[in-house]
Design a protein that fits this description.
The structure holds 2 protein chains of 2 kinds. In chain A, 35% of the residues lie in helices and 28% in strands. By secondary structure, chain A is of the alpha/beta class. In chain A, helix 3 (100-110) crosses helix 4. Chain A starts with 8 loop residues before the first strand and ends with a helix. In chain B, strand 1 (47-53), helix 3 and strand 2 (73-79) form a beta-alpha-beta unit. By secondary structure, chain B is of the alpha/beta class. Chain B is elongated. The chains are: A alpha/beta, B alpha/beta.
C-alpha cells in the first residue's frame, strides 16, 4: 500500500492494529490528519490512544495495517519517521539530573544541530514555550510540573518537526497551565505544525480542530467538536429535575424511545432518539410512568454527554455481539 | 558521529553530577583494595608461640633462638613443664608450643637425628599448615648448619649438596604481591559491570528511554556512547589501584604498561558488554544491580583463580572458568605485573577476552535493537 497522494495529509493510518497476546489494544483504526491540523485523540484510559501514538512514533511495531507520517511508512522506514517528528509523553521524560539547557543541548545535537544553529534553535524554542532565561540553568528535576511540561515541549519542537505527537501532555498540571499549554499548541498549528494529541480531559477536545473518539481499541467516531455535538450522536438530550426515588432510572428507561438516563449532578440527563419527543410530550410520558414533580428542559449536548453516550452504546453493541 | 558525541557528553555530565556513583566507581575499589590487601593476607607472621626447653643445653638454646629470630614466631611464654602447654593452647594464648625434648643435644652430637615436638593449634588450618612448613624449614637450616660446623671442625671439605630453596617472582612469598593483581581485576569487574548494567535500565526506569527511542539515535550509538565514559573512568580506577598497590604493598609492574593498557581496554570491552546485556534484559535498576553483583562477585572470587587455584578444580568447573572474564584478566595481570610477561606469552587470554567481549556486545546490540 502506498500513502495517499494528497500532500496535505500529514498522518494517515489504514486498518492499523496492535495486539498484545490475545488483547487487541488497537483494532483496525483508519484515519487521516491534515497538515497543520490539531487532531485530538479522546477516550477513556486504556482505550488504545497511547498505543496508536506509540506505533506512529515507531516505539511499537504494528501487528497489521499501515501507517504513514509525512508520507513515510512507519513500518518500513521508522528511522526516517524519527527525523520529522517530535514527541512528548504523559510522563515527563527528560533527564531530571541535567539542567534545562543541558537537556536541550543533548536533544538538539541528537537531531544534528550544532554550534550557532543549536544555540539559535534553543533560543527560539525557549521563546516559543514562553520560558525566560532564569530557568535555563536550573536542574530539570527541581522545576514545577507546569514548567517541566514546557521544557519538554521545547525539547520536542527544538528540531522543528513537521508532526508533533503529544501523549497526554496536560495530565498532572493545573487548569491555568493547561490553558496556557493549549495556547502554545494552537500557535504551533497556526505555523503549519501538525499536532496529534491524546487526552482524557474531555473539555480539551474543544481546543482541537478535529477529534477522534476511541474506545476499547476502536475508533468510534471522527469529527469536529461541533459535529460531535450536533450530528454524530443522533439523540436529543433533556435535563430532568426530579425527586430522586430509588427506581427513577428504571422507570424512565421503560419509556419507549428513551435510549439512556444518567445522573448529572443533582439532575438527570435523558437521551432519546432524535426528534421523538417534544418537551411537553416527554413530560406527559414521564408523568404516565409514575414520576411526579418533574421539570423537563431540552439542552444542548455537551461533548462530555456525547462521549459518555458513545462509549456506553459501543460497549452495549460489543456485548450484544 | 554527532549523535554519538552528544551521548558521550550527556553521560559524562550525568556521571559527574551523580557524585555518589562516581565515588563508587573510583573510591570504593581503592578502599576495598586497601582493606582486602591487608585482610586477605595468606601470610602468617608473629604467631604467638610458647617454648619448653627440656634439654637445657647450648644446642637446644641455639635451636630455639633460631626460631624466634625470624618474624614468624613471637615468644609468648617460656615454659617449665609439659602440663602448662595444654592450658596455654586451650586459652588461645599461644597457637604453637615447641618442645625440645631431653637428649636433643646428645643425639645431635652423636650424629643421630633428633626430634623436636611442635604442638600446633589446628583450629585455623591455614595457619597450622603454614607453621608446619616454617618449622620444617627452620629445622632444615639448623641441620645444615650443624653439619657444616661438624665438617668444619674436622677440617674437611663440605660434601653436602646444598639445596637452597629460591622462590621466584615473589621471593618473600608475600601473598599481597600475588593478591593485588587479582583484587584489581575483581574490583574493576565489579564496578564496570554494575555501572554498565545500570546505564540503560536507568533510562528505561525514568522513562527517558522513550525520548531516546523516538529520536534518530541508533542502538549501537547508544551502547558505545554510554560505554566510552565508563571506559575512561575505569581506566582511572585501574591507575589508582595500581598506584595504591605500589605504595602500600610494593607491587611493581614488571611488564610493559602498553601490554597492561591493552589488556585493560580489552577487559573493559568484555565486562561493559556483560553489563550492557544485563541492562538490556532487566526492567529495573534493582534487578539489574542484583544480577550484576551475582554474575560478577562470586565468579570473580571463586572461579577467577583469585583465591582458589584453577588447576585444582574439577574438569567441568575448569571449563566453566573459560567464559569468566576476570579469570583471563587475572591471568594477564599476574603475568604482566608479577612476571613481566608479554602478549606472546598471554595471547590466549587476550583472545579469550576479545571473543567473550565480542559475543556479549553483539548480544547487547541485538537485544537493544529489539527494544527499539
Amino acid at each position: 500500500m502506498e500513502p495517499a497522494g494528497n500532500r496535505n495529509i500529514a498522518i494517515e493510518t489504514r486498518e492499523l492494529t496492535r495486539r498484545f497476546g490475545k488483547f487487541v489494544a488497537v483494532d483496525h483504526i483508519s484515519f487521516s490528519v491534515k497538515k497543520g491540523e490539531i487532531f485530538g485523540f479522546l477516550g477513556p484510559n486504556g482505550a488504545g490512544k497511547s498505543t496508536t501514538i506509540r506505533m506512529l512514533c515507531g516505539l511499537l511495531k504494528p501487528t497489521s495495517g499501515a501507517g504513514y507520517v509525512n508520507g513515510i511508512d512507519i513500518a518500513r522506514e521508522p528511522e526516517a519517521v524519527r527525523q520529522v517528528i517530535g514527541y512528548m509523553s504523559q510522563k515527563f521524560s527528560l533527564y531530571r539530573d541535567l539542567s534545562v539547557i543541558e537537556n536541550l543541548r543533548f536533544f538538539g545535537s541528537v537531531y544534528g544541530l550544532r554550534g550557532k544553529r543549536l544555540d539559535d534553535g534553543i533560543d527560539e524554542a525557549f521563546w516559543r514555550v514562553g520560558l525566560d532565561g532564569g530557568a535555563r540553568n536550573r536542574i530539570t528535576g527541581e522545576l514545577s510540573g507546569a514548567i517541566m511540561q514546557r521544557v519538554a515541549l521545547a525539547c520536542a519542537i527544538l528540531h522543528k518537526p513537521a508532526v508533533l505527537f503529544l501523549d497526554e501532555p496536560t495530565s498532572g498540571i493545573d487548569p491555568a497551565a493547561r490553558r496556557l499549554f493549549w495556547a502554545l499548541i494552537q500557535d504551533l498549528s497556526a505555523e503549519g505544525v501538525t499536532v496529534l494529541v491524546t487526552t482524557h480531559f474531555l473539555d480539551e477536545a474543544e481546543f482541537c480542530q478535529r477529534v477522534g473518539f476511541i474506545n476499547s481499541g476502536r475508533l468510534i467516531a471522527i469529527g469536529t467538536p461541533r459535529e460531535f455535538k450536533e450530528e454524530i450522536l443522533n439523540e436529543d438530550i433533556f435535563e430532568l429535575t426530579t425527586g430522586f426515588e430509588h427506581d427513577v432510572l428504571s422507570r424512565l428507561m421503560k419509556i419507549a424511545g428513551v435510549a439512556d438516563v444518567s445522573y448529572f449532578g443533582d439532575k438527570l440527563h435523558l437521551f432519546a432518539d432524535r426528534g421523538r419527543f417534544t418537551t411537553e410530550f416527554l413530560l406527559s410520558e414521564i408523568q404516565k410512568s409514575g414520576c411526579a414533580g418533574c421539570a423537563v428542559k431540552k439542552i444542548k449536548p455537551r461533548l462530555e454527554d456525547v462521549f459518555v453516550r458513545l462509549a456506553k452504546s459501543q460497549s452495549a453493541a460489543v456485548n450484544n455481539n | 558521529m554527532e549523535r554519538f558525541i552528544a551521548i558521550v557528553i550527556k553521560e559524562f555530565r550525568q556521571i559527574l553530577r551523580d557524585r555518589l556513583s562516581l565515588g563508587m566507581l573510583i573510591i570504593v575499589p581503592a578502599l576495598l583494595l586497601v582493606l582486602y590487601g591487608y585482610a586477605l593476607s595468606f601470610d602468617v607472621k608473629h604467631i604467638p608461640t610458647a617454648a619448653l626447653d627440656e634439654d637445657r643445653t647450648k644446642e637446644s638454646r641455639e635451636f630455639l633462638e633460631g626460631i624466634f629470630q625470624n618474624p614468624y614466631f613471637t615468644l609468648k611464654a617460656q615454659l617449665n613443664r609439659r602440663s602448662e602447654i595444654d592450658e596455654l593452647l586451650m586459652k588461645g594464648k599461644a597457637k604453637v608450643a615447641i618442645v625440645v625434648p631431653r637428649g636433643f643435644s646428645e643425639k645431635i652430637n652423636r650424629g643421630e637425628s633428633a626430634t623436636i615436638q611442635a604442638l600446633i593449634d589446628g583450629a585455623d588450618s591455614t595457619t597450622g599448615s603454614t607453621v608446619h612448613g616454617y618449622l620444617d624449614l627452620i629445622a632444615a637450616r639448623f641441620n645444615r648448619r650443624m653439619v657444616e660446623e661438624t665438617f668444619a671442625v674436622r677440617g674437611g671439605a663440605v660434601p653436602l649438596v646444598r639445596v637452597e630453596p629460591r622462590i621466584w617472582f615473589n621471593p618473600n612469598l608475600e601473598s599481597s604481591v600475588f593478591l593485588v593483581p587479582g583484587l584489581i581485576a575483581m574490583f574493576l569487574m565489579l564496578s564496570s559491570v554494575i555501572a554498565a548494567s545500570l546505564s540503560i535500565v536507568r533510562e528505561r526506569e525514568r522513562r527517558t528511554m522513550e525520548q531516546i527511542m523516538v529520536s534518530p539515535i541508533r542502538p549501537i550509538e547508544l551502547i558505545i556512547g554510554k560505554t566510552v565514559p565508563y571506559i575512561l573512568i575505569c581506566v582511572l580506577t585501574m591507575v589508582m589501584t595500581l598506584l595504591l598497590g605500589y605504595l602500600l604493598f610494593d607491587v611493581v609492574v614488571r611488564g610493559s604498561y602498553v601490554t597492561l593498557s591493552f589488556a585493560t581496554l580489552l577487559f573493559l570491552f568484555a565486562s561493559l558488554g556483560q553489563g550492557m546485556i544485563i541492562s538490556a534484559l532487566t526492567n529495573s535498576q534493582q534487578v539489574a544491580l542484583q544480577v550484576a553483583t551475582i554474575t560478577t562477585l562470586l565468579p570473580s572470587i571463586v572461579l577467577s583463580g583469585l583465591v582458589f587455584p584453577i588447576k585444582n578444580m574439577p574438569q567441568i568447573i575448569q571449563a566453566l572458568t573459560l567464559v569468566i572474564i576476570p579469570r583471563h584478566f587475572v591471568t594477564i595481570l599476574r603475568g604482566v605485573i608479577i612476571r613481566g610477561a608479554g602478549i606472546d606469552d598471554l595471547w590466549l587470554s587476550f583472545l579469550a577476552m576479545f571473543l567473550i567481549g565480542l559475543v556479549f556486545n553483539l548480544v547487547a546490540i541485538i537485544r537493544m535493537r529489539k527494544l527499539l
